[in-house]
Amino acid sequence: MQRDTAIVIGAGVGGLTSAALLAARGLDVTVVEAASAPGGKMRHVAAGDAMIDGGPTVFTMRDVFDSIFDACGASLDDYVTLRPTDRLARHAWGDARLDLFADRDESADAIGAFAGPQEARGYRAFCAEAQQVFTGLDRPFMRGQRTTPFGLAWKMGLANPRDLITKRPFETLWNALGDHFRDPRLRQLFGRYATYCGSSPFKCPATLMLIAHVEASGVWLLDGGMHALARALEALAVRGGARFCYDAPVREILVQQGRAVGVVLASGERLEAGSIVCNADPAAIADGRFGADVASAVPPTERTARSLAAMVWTAQAKTSGFPLLHHNVIFSDDYVAEFGQLAANRLPDPPTVYVCAQDRDGVGNGPDGPERLQILVNAPPIGDGPGFTQAEIDQCQVRMLESLARAGLSVELSPGATTLTTPMGFEALFPSTGGALYGRASHGWAASFRRPGARTQIPGLYCAGGSTHPGAGVPMAALSGGLAVDILLKDLGSTYRSTRTAMPGGISTPSATPQGPMAGATGSRSSPLSAASSRPITS
């Protein structure tokens, strides 16, 4: 078995990033994926004759991805077409509507017109606090390897002692929002950021307000949708020499003398490698889905600690009555009741509804006829338990359409051009999750420290993906892939050829004599992602 070989299990964003970076460092990389295409949750779903994004829909932090492509000697712009959007999203409460903008002043003016000058001032104060929280946690937590509360406090204290007392880790997001907004609709709007990592604003720490700063820092639309990013990362890995095996689920991770040494596919084929990066949810490892020998590699995730699941309709449908943007949120009247129902493992009635109009641009221009839609309603993660009856599923669709209608939006769903994925469907795609889409919920001050890190208890086995540190969302998953590469190469001694920079996490490592397409990039430098912001955004 060669030390310079690696197998990546799963072609989600974390696995794709790991594969591209490892290949760029000169390792022989094989990616094995159970599905027939890359992306993981960032997948394409067929609805009639249309292919529609069935997972994350929001692209932010392009600097993270610029850094990944740069570390592999390539340019993101050569692989995808990105267009910044000035208008972030449209929000509705019945007939009332509010748009948020990338420009903070425009958003403040819109909020002032919507709810009055005091709320506009509250928004500016909220943005200032959100920026402060992001700045304090960016380097010591989001870009670094998994740490402990004491370790984080030490890092933050060294950088800025004030950060230790200004991040509100013991206060809920909902309560913190009450300090800035009197209008319950605004509290509801900014409380929704908790759902970006599958959590409740009534239980997650106020530190999640940093997402507001992240989103206002830039949102881009991708030609071809978010799945185009998965294809771009796949092409980047292939450019470095990585091989992809699709329709190849892994039955077992092999262990010899206490070390991971390869995998056995469901077909019975055996593949050996010096290192394994697992991009599946760590809960699947703990549940023994990759064999009993590695079940102890990560701690189990309690079902009560799971993040939210979702009911996701992907459809090609006619719309009318509401001026859709690319991103739209139609809120329920009672957020407390909605999250109470979710906590009781019931589908919300009525629900808050997210609509991504994939064919719309940043100002709402779109097709005259049927358009591609992703419609999402939060759901409890019980896909591996009792699930929902067909009557409950049908009722949820009726309530979803009623919520849209209260805002003036009519959507004509037809069975032949609509695909619904339930928590049971997500469990089938991503086992041991119950359909939870974000790993552990970020409930309580210590939740972020309970996510598994890249290193496991089995030497040679590493974890990556949105269920691992630093957290949920496309950029976080990419950073997790980089962190897995960083620690893997550190364990190997980092004796492989240099890319333009060292691996993520900021560890500088000596490089061997450069060879191949990266010849000329020598020396040890800082992490390729060290200049990239870390912002947990997902749909």
Q: Structural class of the helix and strand makeup?
A: alpha/beta
Q: If you compute it from the alpha carbons, what radius of gyration comes out, rounded to the nearest whole angstrom?
A: 22 Å
Q: Shape from CA axes? A: globular
- Percent of residues in helices: 25-40%
Provide the residue-averaged pLDDT: 85
Structural commentary:
The protein has 539 residues and is α/β, with parallel strands linked by helices. It has helices spanning 13-24, 62-71, 104-115, 117-142, 149-159, 173-178, 184-191, 210-216, 227-239, 282-286, 335-343, 390-406, 423-429, 474-492; strands spanning 5-9, 28-32, 44-47, 50-53, 82-84, 87-93, 96-101, 220-222, 243-245, 250-256, 259-265, 270-272, 275-278, 309-320, 327-330, 353-357, 371-379, 410-412, 418-421, 461-463. The strands form five sheets. Strands 6, 7, 14, 15, 16, 17, 18 and 19 form an eight-stranded mixed beta sheet that branches. It has a five-stranded parallel beta sheet with strand order 9-2-1-13-20, with helices on one face. A three-stranded antiparallel beta sheet has the order 10-11-12, with no helix packed on it. Strand 11 and strand 12 (270-272) form a beta hairpin. Helix 1 (13-24) runs parallel beside helix 14, helix 2 (62-71) packs parallel to helix 14 (474-492) and helix 4 packs across helix 8 (210-216). The longest helix has 26 residues, at 117-142. Residues 143-159 and 497-539 have low confidence and may be disordered.
Key attributes of the depicted protein:
14 helices, globular, 539 residues, 30% helix, alpha/beta, 19% strand
Describe the protein's topology.
Elements (H helix, E strand, L loop, with lengths): L4 E5 L3 H12 L3 E5 L11 E4 L2 E4 L8 H10 L10 E3 L2 E7 L2 E6 L2 H12 L1 H26 L6 H11 L13 H6 L5 H8 L18 H7 L3 E3 L4 H13 L3 E3 L4 E7 L2 E7 L4 E3 L2 E4 L3 H5 L22 E12 L6 E4 L4 H9 L9 E5 L13 E9 L10 H17 L3 E3 L5 E4 L1 H7 L31 E3 L10 H19 L47
Helix pairs in contact: 1-9, 1-14, 2-14, 3-4, 4-5, 4-8
